[in-house]
Design brief:
Elements: E1 2-6, H1 12-22, H2 33-42, E2 45-51, E3 54-63, E4 68-76, H3 85-95, E5 101-103, H4 113-116
Parallel strand pairs: 4-5
Antiparallel strand pairs: 1-2, 2-3, 3-4
Length: about 140
C-alpha cells in the first residue's frame, strides 16, 4: 500500500536512490553526497510516497507558503510511474501551500506530463548558472 505524507527529514541514501531510480538522477548531483545533503537541509516542504516504508516518490520544494512554491524535484521510481503518484505528490505539495503559486521547471523527459495533469506552461522562465554571465 502506498502512503503519502509530509516529512521533515529524509535520509540522504534513500533520496539519492529515488533520484537514480526515477531518471532525475541524470540531472542531479547524485555522486556528490555533500550537495545532496544541502539540497535536503534547505528544502522546507518535502512530500513523499512510500510503499511499505520504501521511498518511491518525492516532491522537494522551497516555499514562503504565501506567494510561491518552487517544486525543485519531483521524482517517482520508474517501477511505480504511470500510477498517479507524481500527481498525488504535487497535490499534497499544493495543499500545504494553498495561497502560493506552485512553480517548476520540467525535466526534458517530463515536459509532456505536466499539461496532462492540468498544469499551465509559461515561457517567461530564465536561469542563471554563473554570476559571471551577467552583463
Amino acid at each position: 500500500m502506498i502512503t503519502y505524507q509530509i516529512e521533515e527529514k529524509i535520509e540522504i541514501e534513500e533520496f539519492t536512490q529515488v533520484l537514480v531510480n526515477s531518471t532525475l538522477g541524470e540531472r542531479r548531483p547524485v555522486n556528490e553526497p555533500e550537495r545532496i545533503t544541502e539540497m535536503l537541509q534547505h528544502a522546507n516542504l518535502i512530500a513523499t510516497a512510500r510503499d511499505n516504508g520504501k521511498l518511491i516518490g518525492i516532491s522537494r520544494s522551497l516555499t514562503d507558503f504565501a506567494f510561491c512554491t518552487y517544486l525543485s524535484d519531483l521524482a517517482v521510481d520508474e517501477n511505480y510511474q504511470k500510477k498517479g503518484i507524481g500527481k498525488e505528490l504535487i497535490r499534497l505539495t499544493k495543499e500545504h501551500t494553498p495561497k502560493a503559486t506552485l512553480i517548476l521547471l520540467a525535466a526534458p523527459k517530463a515536459v509532456g506530463y505536466y499539461p496532462k495533469i492540468g498544469m499551465k506552461q509559461w515561457e517567461q522562465c530564465y536561469i542563471l548558472n554563473n554570476v559571471e554571465d551577467l552583463k
